[in-house]
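User: Fold this; tokens only.

Assistant: Input:
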Amino acid sequence: MAAYIRLSQWVGRKDLTDLWGAELSPQATEKLIKQLKQRCQCNGTIVPGGAPDGGDLIQLQGDRRKDVRAVLADTPWHFVVYEAPLALGT
């Protein structure tokens, strides 16, 4: 499975770490975001249909790319993680 991570910088606001491409069931997605929020110690949400590919988008507050990679490495799903280009002001 491929997973994409991107840092979204809001002009004058906080950074968001975006994760998408993980084609998981709704229950598995909820479990993954719970693990991410615990590991990163931040707030996060699932945006249905918010990903560039039309799938679900997981957003975490702050620059959490290293933590997301570590969590994905520890999950039972095998992800290939790609770094997507920076998105400014989206």
